[in-house]
UniProtKB/TrEMBL annotation:
Domain of life of the native organism: Bacteria
Residue ranges occupied by any EAL domain in the UniProt entry: 23-277
Upper taxonomic lineage: Bacteria, Bacillati, Bacillota, Bacilli, Bacillales
Organism: Fontibacillus panacisegetis
Protein name: PAS domain S-box-containing protein/diguanylate cyclase (GGDEF) domain-containing protein
Length: 279
């Protein structure tokens, strides 16, 4: 019995320690990564369905760690949130993205909106609004060219604390997008109370549109809801011609996905803008 008990605890201890060590290491590498400038932003174009022009870009973080190689944000954002490192990382992201978007105008390329993913941990900080306003001031970006993306699930979890902050940001002209819409639990009533400008249809709804086109996909219904509420609707994760046709018929306002372009480096983004490509 003693042997068996010991064995059990060994298994538990080892896997626990392993997970624990991996987390501690990842945290350590994240902190180091921030100091050493290992993060980069990539930019994925958003295209107007109406005229095929690029209207803006979503900034997406990339991490090339000397110890770990390329690490997907899907694996490190959660740990950055748990360790609160998302606060300095998110601040870096916001300043970098605003500076990049502001440089388009200085270079005479025109106006493009920049969409930045914001973690609720960041938004709950007392100085969040000051930080955003400082990013705009320091970079000279017009407030209406900045869009903050917040996931539907997270906003619902902290609804009362977040709504006044979002309302203030809106009053300054900053746009607010509800990300991954359709996967959370917001009622249509609470949606009406949210000071938002944009709905981003989660890509699972676009995935459902197969080669035959799927008349049962809820994407169309989501567009109608957005329309009724006076919101812009973005379809994300559009990968195929079929899906492209579907979201056009559904009258989405904007399209984002591999069918148009993968997220691009700063250099490639500038090249794309210079090419004045119309989709
Ligand atoms: P998200 O905000 O929903 O971003 C969209 C994700 O879908 C991105 O993955 C993008 O590269 C990917 N994507 C774009 N087009 C397509 C497509 O046609 N098909 C498919 N299958 N995928 C497509 P990525 O860059 O790996 O980011 C994953 C998630 O990590 C993001 O999901 C977002 O939640 C988070 N994230 C990324 N950058 C940041 C950041 O700077 N701050 C915060 N807080 N979170 C971020
Ligand atoms: Ca997003
Ligand atoms: Ca999304
Ligand atoms: Ca997502």
């Amino acid at each position: 019995a003693k042997e068996a008990g010991k064995g059990k605890y060994m298994v538990f201890d080892q896997s626990f320690l392993q997970v624990f060590n991996e987390r501690v290491n990842l945290e350590k590498y994240l902190r180091q990564g921030l100091q050493n400038g290992e993060f980069q932003l990539f930019y994925q174009p958003q295209v107007s369905v109406r005229n095929g022009h690029i209207t803006g870009f979503e900034a997406l973080i990339r991490w090339n760690s000397p110890e770990l190689g390329f690490v997907s944000p899907l694996s490190f954002i959660k740990i950055a949130e748990d360790s609160r490192l998302i606060i300095p990382i998110g601040e870096w992201v916001l300043f970098r993205a605003c500076a990049f978007a502001s440089s388009f105008q200085e270079e005479g390329y025109g106006k493009f909106k920049i969409s930045v993913n914001i973690s609720v941990i960041q938004m709950l900080q007392d100085d969040f609004i000051d930080m955003v306003m400082r990013a705009l001031e320091d970079t000279g970006l017009e407030p209406d060219l900045l869009e903050l993306e917040i996931t539907e699930t997270l906003i619902m979890e902290s609804f009362d604390a977040l709504i006044p902050k979002l309302a203030f940001l809106r009053s300054k002209g900053i746009q607010i997008a509800l990300d991954d819409f359709g996967t959370g639990y917001s009622s249509l009533g609470s949606l009406q109370d949210m000071p938002i400008t944009t709905l981003k249809i989660d890509k699972t709804f676009i995935e459902q549109v197969s080669d035959e086109g799927d008349p049962r996909s809820l994407a169309k219904a989501i567009v109608l809801i957005g329309r009724k509420m006076g919101l812009k609707v973005v379809a994300e994760g559009v990968e195929t011609e079929q899906q492209m046709k579907y979201v056009k018929r559904a009258k989405c306002d904007m399209i984002q996905g591999y069918y148009i372009s993968k997220p691009l480096s700063e250099e490639d983004t500038i090249q794309l803008i210079r090419s004045k490509k119309v989709y």
